[in-house]
Design brief:
Elements lengths: L25 H22 L2 H8 L5 H4 L1 H21 L4 H12 L2 H7 L3 H30 L4 H30 L7 H16 L5 H10 L14 H11 L1 H30 L4 H29 L2 H20 L4 H30 L5 H30 L1 H22 L8
Helix pairs in contact: 1-7, 1-8, 1-9, 4-7, 4-16, 5-7, 5-9, 6-7, 6-9, 7-8, 7-10, 8-13, 8-15, 11-12, 11-16, 12-13, 12-15, 12-16, 12-17, 13-15, 14-15, 14-17, 15-16, 16-17
């Protein structure tokens, strides 16, 4: 009697019971941390080198035109954040993560070999889409896995991995550029990042939407009174953007925080090179900001689980404002001012970043949390474009140093607004 061959069973996600918690999901959590190292490294490719490609390779004399790559990146990433959050509440997180890597594949090739500035702008459009999809999903998937008790720690580790990689890659590209030239050698790193990130995301990462659904069944309302339901997109946008005072405070602080980053991204290389700092020195100044920002979140993330989100946000904004003062007034000694100011900016951002994400996750119910996080990240990353545009206009009229002063003033006022309007969101406080 002939034997009928058994049909192979299709590959499926693990059927193990769904549990919330960092310890219960540490293996998947660790994989997502590694993935976010590669996601952050893709942004780090541009921090030191690309503004100088504009001035030295393509001979662009306008600050606004040079900063256009940051504006393109910020606007596209902001819109993609919004879309990715909505998609994450409707489809699987894993599919969107993989899509983000697929979109990012051409980026290092365009940056390294693009024949005109328009190709650099195209690379930043694709990078913005890729970041909006991939980084958003690493955030949402970690929030899903850990549940409410370790949310600050989860966000601290996620952002530490991403922005630590931003800083280290900025430093490495600075060294490669000083040794081999501005293109294409510094961008070889990006080819490795996209390949490794895509393979890990496709074959090893598992979807986490079931974890969010489990948490949603356990919570009737959040710490600021938001309840479970399936809202329309415009309702989530309005609630996160202006109707809920706490979510509004968080969203505007996120925008101003990334306004600082967008300003420094474009202004710092041009300012410090014009002040006589070499490429390696600029690489250090550009690296120390995101490295301190990244490593510091390992401390500030869990600290927000203890003392609350609001104190870290308020004082983090004030510390960033102080960093701007140090840089803006210290250009008689540019390298020292750049290093000290960047350390203060990094420390302040480390205090703010995980606390902001945790506050949104506290305030929004799990049934619409991914959409709310997407709206917050829309406003936050719109800060890249606002910061670059503001810096370009102010620099053209008053000079590069005044762009730093303007960012410092806005940062201080943002901290005051959070202090006056935000309600503490940490459950139990």
């Amino acid at each position: 009697m002939p034997v009928t061959p058994a049909h192979p069973r299709p590959l499926q996600e693990s059927r193990q019971p769904i549990r919330l918690g960092l310890k219960e999901n540490w293996q998947q959590f660790a994989l997502l941390v590694l993935v976010n190292v590669f996601v952050g490294g893709m942004v780090g490719l541009e921090r030191t080198v690309v503004p100088l490609i504009g001035t030295e390779v393509f001979q662009i004399g306008s600050e606004v035109v040079i900063f256009s790559f940051i504006i393109a990146f910020g606007v596209v990433k902001a819109v993609t954040n919004l879309v990715s959050g909505l998609l994450a509440d409707r489809y699987t997180r894993k599919r969107i993560l993989i899509l983000g890597w697929l979109v990012g594949i051409p980026v290092p090739f365009l940056l390294g070999w693009g024949p005109s500035w328009n190709w650099i702008l195209l690379a930043n459009v694709l990078l913005g889409i890729s970041q909006g999809l991939a980084w958003s999903m690493t955030v949402n998937m970690k929030i899903d896995l850990v549940g409410p008790r370790k949310r600050g720690l989860a966000m601290g580790l996620n952002e530490a991995a991403g922005y630590g990689a931003v800083g280290l890659t900025a430093l490495l590209t600075g060294y490669l550029a000083s040794a081999y030239g501005l293109r294409p050698e510094p961008f070889y790193i990006g080819i490795f990042y996209t390949g490794a990130g895509l393979l890990i995301s496709w074959f090893l990462v598992r979807d986490t939407r079931a974890h969010a659904q489990l948490e949603g069944r356990q919570i009737s309302k959040t710490s600021v009174g938001e309840k479970a339901h399936t809202p329309k997109t415009h309702w989530v946008f309005a609630e996160t953007s202006w109707r809920n005072k706490t979510l509004f405070s968080v969203s505007q602080a996120g925008l101003v925080n990334n306004l600082n980053d967008g300003m420094s991204w474009g202004v710092f290389p041009l300012l410090f090179v014009s002040a006589g700092v070499g490429l390696e020195g600029v690489g250090w100044i550009k690296a120390i900001y995101p490295v301190v920002w990244g490593v510091g979140q390992v401390i500030t993330g869990p600290l927000s689980d203890r003392i609350g989100r609001k104190p870290l946000i308020v004082w983090g904004m004030f510390l960033q404002a102080l960093g701007h003062v140090v840089i803006g007034l210290g250009m008689a000694h540019p390298f020292a001012a750049g290093m000290l100011g960047s350390v203060l900016l990094g420390m302040g951002t480390a205090m703010v970043y995980p606390a902001l994400l945790a506050a949104v996750s506290d305030a929004a119910h799990p049934s619409w949390r991914a959409s709310s996080v997407g709206v917050y990240r829309f406003w936050r990353d719109m800060g890249y474009a606002v910061g670059a545009l503001m810096a370009g206009v102010v620099a053209a009229v008053l000079g590069l140093e005044w762009a730093i002063h303007a960012a410092g003033l806005l940062t201080f006022l943002s901290g005051v607004l959070v202090w006056r309007s935000m309600q503490e969101t940490l459950p139990g406080r």
